[in-house]
Automatic annotation (TrEMBL):
A Pfam family: Phosphoesterase
Keyword Signal carried by entry: yes
InterPro entries: Alkaline_phosphatase_core_sf, Phosphoesterase
Gene Ontology molecular functions: hydrolase activity, acting on ester bonds
Keyword field contains Plastid: no
Protein name: Acid phosphatase
Secretion signal span: 1-17
Classification lineage: Eukaryota, Fungi, Dikarya, Ascomycota, Pezizomycotina
Keywords: Hydrolase, Signal
GO biological process: phospholipid catabolic process
Amino acid sequence: MKLSAGLALAGLSLAAAMPFKRSGPTPAKGKWFDRFVVIVLENTNKDVTFGDPYFLNLTNMGMTLGGYHGTTHPSQPNYITMISNTIAGGVFDDADHNTTQDSIIDLFEPAGITWRAYMEGYTPLEGGDCNPLTENDTTLYVRKHNPFMSFDNIRNNKSRCQNIVNAEEHFAKDVALGADAPMYMFYTPNLDNDAHNTNISFAAKDVQYLVDTMLLNKEFMKNTMILITFDENNIYINDNFGLDNSIYTVILGNDTIKCYDCVDQTYYNHFTQVVTLERNWNLSTIAQPDGSEEGWDQWWRPFGQLRSASDDVCAYAPCSEYYDGKSPAASDGNWEDQDF
Ligand SMILES: *[C@@H]1O[C@H](CO)[C@@H](O)[C@H](O)[C@H]1NC(C)=O
Ligand SMILES: *[C@@H]1O[C@H](CO)[C@@H](O)[C@H](O)[C@H]1NC(C)=O
Ligand SMILES: *[C@@H]1O[C@H](CO)[C@@H](O)[C@H](O)[C@H]1NC(C)=O
Ligand SMILES: *[C@@H]1O[C@H](CO)[C@@H](O)[C@H](O)[C@H]1NC(C)=O
Ligand SMILES: *[C@@H]1O[C@H](CO)[C@@H](O)[C@H](O)[C@H]1NC(C)=O
Ligand SMILES: *[C@@H]1O[C@H](CO)[C@@H](O)[C@H](O)[C@H]1NC(C)=O
Ligand SMILES: *[C@@H]1O[C@H](CO)[C@@H](O)[C@H](O)[C@H]1NC(C)=O
């Protein structure tokens, strides 16, 4: 960090080209994974996604989360719930909101868990500050799909801003670091590549590029869990928190899941990501600096069919008991019915 401050003072802007380098305390081994990658696509109903040959193909290679749901509508609050723990930090629409609340990043950094957010079409400001622009019409980047930008303690902190990078420039380079790649990677494609302005088969091309880049690097894939999900389905009912907002979600990474080509039908939603990350790295729950709302991560459950080193049931094999869509924890998909 001293080096970059020096360069900035000298009037040079190397922020955009800054390579990833780990720093901070040595992190603990994860319970289920040592790296979590999430790729977020847009506004597609589950049946439409399953209808695409490539997305169907991915379900053969990993575990489908058949009971996974978006948390609300429209887009932005869904992204925010993937990294925080209250009802979207008070953000309920797609406007440029700022929140004083904490996020999963506030738990990661003291624990030495490295992170980066990859945003297609994003350009940081000269000197490395976060670029809070609403959208770039040329590159099809939008702030509403970049949840990190809404948190004051990220957007206003130049050192944290270094971790929000242009995806096209950095993603493949960082995957090439193999074991040294960031431990948490959040990937947002642009408005064409995420299906927002296009369709699911268009989005499949970008997803295949990303997935191939990762799967071809064995060092990178060791104990890595890749979650491919959507922000919400394409049926817009305002504030339908907890109601049906079913989306295609698949986990890839045979070191981390109990079975592949299988379905876990338990009810999950975007908050489950946060709880899974907290439990994986034995972190606390996220503090509520303004005391405004109860943290959902205090009582939500993590993904249920993950494989820890001491529990390798069904590893590297399809498990027929899950494959029929009736996992041991199957539910009818109503969040009210869950045993917290
Ligand atoms: C998981 O292992 C199975 C069996 O080897 C393979 O078919 C599948 O492609 C693997 N999945 C991933 C994401 O590597
Ligand atoms: C949030 O902060 C950005 C600058 O970072 C500002 O442009 C925007 O107006 C703020 N939003 C609100 C609702 O205050
Ligand atoms: C949009 O992105 C392009 C390419 O990175 C950049 O040249 C341009 O300045 C950006 N526009 C805005 C308004 O930031
Ligand atoms: C900014 O972020 C860095 C790295 O995450 C952290 O060490 C520092 O305390 C933060 N600065 C402020 C003013 O919060
Ligand atoms: C998706 O859009 C492309 C054009 O970009 C079109 O050729 C294709 O048929 C569409 N696919 C579906 C499933 O609608
Ligand atoms: C399935 O996805 C994998 C990973 O991207 C890819 O290597 C393979 O070619 C795909 N197969 C089909 C039939 O699409
Ligand atoms: C998890 O953290 C708690 C304290 O926060 C500690 O008591 C416990 O030993 C840790 N567990 C593991 C497995 O590291």
